[in-house]
Queue: 2 jobs
Job 1
Amino acid sequence: MSKPTDLVQGTLDLLILKTVALEPVHGWAIAQRIRQMSSEVLQVGESALYPALHKLEQRGWIEAEWKLSEANRRAKYYSLTRAGRKALAAETENWERLAGAISAIVRMV
Amino acid sequence: MERLLLILRAVFQSKRADRELDEELQYHLDMQVQEGLKRGLSPQQAQTAAKRALGAITQRKEEIREARPLHSLDGLWADIKYGLRGIRRNPGISTLIVLIMALGIGATTTVFGWIDGMVLHPFRGATDDGQLAVLEAVRANGIEAPRVSYADSRDFQDSLRSISGLLLSEKGPASIGEGENAYVVWYENVSGNYFDVLGVKPVLGRAFARDEYGDRAKAFTAVISYRLWKSHFHADKSVLGRTVQINRYPVTIVGVAPPEFGGDFPGMALDIWVPAPLAGERERYARHFHAIVRLKPGVSVSEANAEAATVAARLARGFPKTNQGIGARIVPIWKAQEGASSIVAWPMAILGAACVLVLLIACANVANLLLARSAARQTEFGIRAALGASPGRLSRQLVFESLLLAALATLVGLPLALWLENVLIYFVPPTGVPVSFNVQPSARVFLFAALVCLASALLSGIPPAFQLVRRSLVDALKQGGRGGTRSGHAQRISGALVVAETGLALAALVMLGLFVRSLYGLENTPAGFNHRNVTVCRLFLSTNNYTVNEEQEFSRRLRDHLLAAPGVTSAAYSDSIPLGFGLGKWNSIVVEGYASRPGENLDVHHAEVSPGYFDVLRIPLLAGRDFRAEDNETAPRVMIVNESFARRFFDGRDPLGHRCRFTANRSRS
C-alpha cells in the first residue's frame, strides 16, 4: 500500500481527477482503477484516498451523487465538474513538464 | 454558487455528512471483503484484513472533517460539551476562576458605565447627543466665567455655519405652590428652541409655541419633568393647561418631559423649564446664560470651535466696550467648565485605569490557574491527540473553556455591576441640589461587558493554549503518563505570568498608596476655618420675589431666632460658603495707594457675610474688628480682607483704614 508521502506531492489528486473524468465512479472503484491502470504499481490506500476525495469535493473540482452501484447498493459516485476539468488540464500539463524534466535529468547520468 | 451550497450543506448537515462518510467507508469495507473472498480468503480472514486496512482511516476522519468548510462550527457543540465537562470536573478551581473574573468584569463594567453615563453621555434623553457641544465665553484674564449673553448668542446663532441650533439656559431654585404647600425645585429659564435643539419630545403635551418665547412673549408657560409630574401632580393627565404658582408667578403647564430627561446640566435633575423672559436682555455684558449648540451632521467640535473664535474676535472688534478680551470656544460636553462632567472626568479616567489593572491581575491569576489545570490534564490531551485531535483543535478547546468561564463570570459580574452602579450616590457630597447621574444600564454598557468578557477570556486562555501547541504531543503523553509533572515550558509561562501579576499588583498597590496618601494630606490640609459642629442650611429667598431689603430683614430675624434657640452658640449667614460649589462672586478692585501694572488682573472673589461669621467658622481676626449690627445699609460700607490680599495690595503696610473701590459698587475698609 502506498502512502501519499510515497507519491509525488499532488499526484494523487491528478490520478483521482483523471479516473473520475472518464465516468462517474465511487471510491472503491477509483482505488481499483488506479491499481489496474498502473498495472499494480500504484496502490492507493483508503486512508489517503478518502481525505483526498473530500478535499477535492470541497474545492469544487469533483461532485458527488448517491446512486445504486453494480452490486445493487447505495454508493457515492464522484464525477468531474467544469472547474475540475480545467484543473485536470492544468495538472496534467504540470505533471508532464515535471516528469519530462525529471526523466531528462535521470537520462543524462 | 455551488460553493455556497456546499458551505450551507456543511453547516446544516454536518451530522448527515458524518453518516454519509460512514456509509461510504462501509461500502468500501464490504467491497474489500468481497475482494478478499474472491482471492480465496475465508470470510473471517477477509473481514479482519479489510478492517485492518480501514482501521487506519478512523484516525483520518478528523482530517476529512477539517476539509469541510466551517468545520469549526461543527466542533462547537463538542467544545461546549468538553468545556462544561472540564468546568464541572474541577468545581473548586472553576468557582474560584469565575469569582475572580466576575470581580474584575463587574468592577470594570461599573466604572465604564459611570464614565459612559457621566462623562460621555450626560444628557439623558437627548437625541444624538454626540452632536451637542457647549459654547463658552473665554476671558483673557483667565477668570472662569464661561456664560454668554443673549445679545452675543444671537450673533453666534446667525453667524456660525457649523451649527444647526443654539439653546440658552439658566438654572436656579424655584418655589412651586404657595404658602404651606410651597416647596423648592430646580428650574431652568430656557430659550424657546431648547427642546428642539436637544431633540427631546415631551411625552405629554408639547414644547413651547412660537408666541410663548422671545422678545414679545405673551404667556408664562412651563414644561415639567416626569419626576415632578408623578410626585407633585400624581401623574394626572389633566395637569396640561393647569396654572400653578412658580416663584409667585402664575404659570401654565403645557407639557411633561420624558422620564429619563433631567435637563442640560450634567449631574443635576431639573424639574421645570420655562421660556426665559428675554425682553430686557439687550446688553452684551449681561452674560448669565449657559449655551449649548447642536453641530450640523459631519461637523467636528474643533471645526465649530475655530469658527466660534473668529466670530468672537469679530464681536470684540465691533463692540470693544463690552466684548474686548472676551473670546469664545466650543467644547465637548465633558470639557465644559460648568456641570459635573468636567469635575468627574479625571477621577473617572483614573478609576477606569485602576479597574483595567485589576482586571489584568484577575486575568493573569486565571491564566495561571488554567495553566496549572492544563498541566494536570496532560494525560487527557495526550490520549486525545493520539486519537487524532490536532493541537489546534485542542488549544481551541482550551481557549473555548476559558471563554465559557468568562461567560459565566459575566453572568455573575453583570448583576454585581448593576448593583455597584448605584453606589455612586454615596460618593456625592451633599450640595443641596438634586444630584442625578445618567448611570442607567444601557446597551453600550452591556456591550462593553461582553467585550471585557471576551478580552479576559482570550487573555487568560491563550497562555495555556500556546503552551500546548508549542510542545510535542508525544511528549505530553509520555510526561502525562508519568503523573503530570509540569514541563519546563509550562513553568516558563507560569513564571512569566507570576512576574506580570506581581508587577501589576505592585503598580496597583503603589497607586492605592499614593491615593490614600493624597487623601490623608487633603484631610489634614488646614482650610483656614473649622467646620466642626457647624451645620449649613441653604435658603432660596429669591424664589419668594423678595427685595434686597426684605432678604436682609428676613436673614437678620432668622439669625436672632437661631441664636435664641437652645444648643446654638453662634449663627451667621452669608451668600456663599467656603469651599462650596459654584463660582462665587468676583469683581475688579481698585485699592487706594496700590499702583497696578498695566493689564494686571485685579479681579478678586468676595462674599457678603453677617456679623458672627468669623466666630462660627473659627476664623481668627488678626487685626481690626468683626462686623457689627450697626454696619447696615445706611452706615459707611466696610470690608474684611484676608492675609494674602493684605500682602498683595499693601505689602507690609497696615491695611486698616485704607479705602478700596469695586468697579461696580463702593466699599471701604
Job 2
Amino acid sequence: MKFTKFTGAFALAATLATPVLAQDTKVVGVSIPAATHGWAGGMNFHAQEAVDRLEAVYPELDFVLATASDAAKQVNDIEDMMATRNIDALVVLPFESEPLTSPVQAVADSGAWVTVVDRGLAAEGIEDLYVAGDNTGFGRVSGEYMASAMPDGGKIVAFRGIPTTIDNERVAGFEAAIEGAGIEIIDMEHGNWNRDDSFTVMEDFLSKHAEINAVWASDDDMAIGVLAAIEAAGRDDIQFVLGGAGMKEMIARTRDGDEMIPANVTYPPSMIATAIELTAVGLTSTAPVSGTFVIGSVLITQDNAADFYYPDSPF
Amino acid sequence: MATANAKKKSSIFFDLKVMGPILALVVLVIVGAALNGNFLSAGNISNVLSRSAFIGIIAVGMTFVITAGGLDLSVGSMAAFIAGLMILVMNGLLPSMGPGWPLVMVGMLTAIVAGTTAGFINGFLITNMRIEAFIVTLGTMGIYRSLVTWLADGGTLSLDFGMRSVIRPIYFDGILGISWPIIVFAIVAITGELVMRRAAFGRHVAAVGSNDQVARYSSVNVNRVRMMTYVFLGILVGIATIMYVPRLGSASSSTGVLWELEAIAAVIIGGTMLKGGFGRVWGTVIGVLILSLIGNILNLTDGVSPYLNGAVQGVIIILAVILQRDKKAEG
C-alpha cells in the first residue's frame, strides 16, 4: 500500500491536467523481462495493472507492453516498438545493462522520453528518468535489523543470489551494517535466489556447523528453502531467518507473528508501476519528472506487515 | 595372434572403463572425508542420497533413451510442469476430499498419468513424425517451462498448508532411518539395471541404438522400442516429481532448471555412450552420486571461492569421463 497515496496524487494531477492536454495520442512502450521467477512475476503483474489503470485515466495515452525472456529478445522488442509503433516514450527494465545500452540510446536519440527501471544502463546520461531500487540500502537495512535483533552478537550464515552487481551491492551493504556488532558470518554461499538450491546449501551448512544463531537468506524464495532444511534437521539453535523482497506468503507469516520470520526487507517489484506512472505524468502534464527516483528498502516487522500484504499479486 | 593380442588389450581397457567412475567416486569420498569431519556422518550421507534421488530416478530413464540413440532435453521442464499440475490438482480437490492419503494418491496418480502422457507425446513425435529427438524435446522443453510459468501466473504454486504436513513424510520419512527418496531411487536403479542386463527389452534398446537397420532386420520393432524408452522416462519423471513436491511443497518456473543436463551428464559419466548402443545403469547411479557429492563437498569446505563452483564441477566431470575412455577410440 506504499504507493497508493503516491499514485492517488498522480491520478488526481492527471485528471486536472487531462482536459488541457488532450490532443493527439501518444504511445508509451513498456519493455520488461518475462516472469521467469517470483520477483519478475510480481513485476509483470504490477506493470500490467499500471498499464490497465493508466489507459483508463489517460485516453490520450496508448501503451505497448512487451515481455522478453532474454536480452536479445528485449532488443528486438524495443527496435520493433521504434519501427512499428513510433513510440513517444519508453519504460524499460533492462535484462542486462550492456546489451540494452545502445538500443535504448537509439530510442533516446529519436527524441523519445526514456525511463530506465531498476538496472541502470552501461552509459550515463541516456535516460530522462531513472527509477532505481536501492540494493546497497537493501543490504544495509537487513544488516541493521540483524544487529538490532542480535544485541549480543552471534554466528550467522548468509545466502547470496545469482552472482551479479545487484548481489554484490547487497552483500557489501549488509557487511558494512553489521560491522562492529559482534556478528560473525561463518559461511556464505550462492543460493541463486532459488528455493531448491538454498535448501541444499542450508542442509550442508547444518551438517558443517554445530551452532548457527541466525540466517540472512536475503530473499524470500531462499528463506523458504532455508526454513524447510532447518525444520527437517530439527535444529533449535537458529533463532530466526531474515529473507527479503516481500513475498506475500512470508509477509503474512511475519504479520501473524511467526518467530522464525520476525521481519522482511522490501525490494518492491511494483517499482515498475512507479516508473510507468511517472512517465505518464511527464507526458501529459507540465510537472517535471526527470532525474533519479530511488525507491528505498523498508524494514517490515509485525507492526507494519499488514500494509505490505498485496493479496492479488502473484509475488 | 593379432586377434588374441587385440582381445587382451581391449580387456585391460575394458577394466579401466568400468573402474573409471567408481575410482572418481572413491577419490571424491576420500577428499570429502579428509576436508570435513561431518562428511561421513549419517545425516550428511542421507541428505546427499535423498537430494540425488530426483536426478537419479530421471537419469535411469535417460540411460535407456540415450542407449537407444535418443535424447530428451525436456525432463527438467516436464518435472516442473508435472509438479505444478500435481499441486493444482491437490489444491483443487482439497475442499471436497479433505487433507489425507486419498488426496495424496490422487496427486501421485496425476503425476504418473501426466508423465506417461508427456513421454508418449515426445515418443510419438520422434518415432511417428520422424522429427529429430533433439528438436522435439527442445520444443517440449520450452512448452512445459512456459506452461508452468503460466499456471503459476509468473509466481510460485504452493501446496495448501493443510496438505503439507500430510505429504511431507514422502520426502523426509522412511523405513529404518532410510528416507523414501533413497528407497525409491534404489528400487528404480536395481530394476533398471536388471532390465538393461537381463530382459529382452534391454538388449533391444542397445540394438536399436547401435544400428537400427540391423535391429529392424532382426525383427525388433524399432519404433515401439524407441517409443517405450520415452514413455518410461516420462513415468520416471512423474515418480521423481512425486518425491520432489513434498520437500518444499511448491513449484515455479525455476523448478527443475538444468535437470536435463545433469541427468545427461550423469549418464555419460557412468559410461553410457552418447551416440547410443551401450548403456550402463549402475554407472549412471555412480554418475549421479559424483555430481551431488561435488556440490556437497564444495558447500562443506571453505577453500574454493563459490564463484568457482561451476569450474570445479566441470573439471571433475571431464576427468571422470577421461578416466574411462579408451585412448585410441573414436578420435
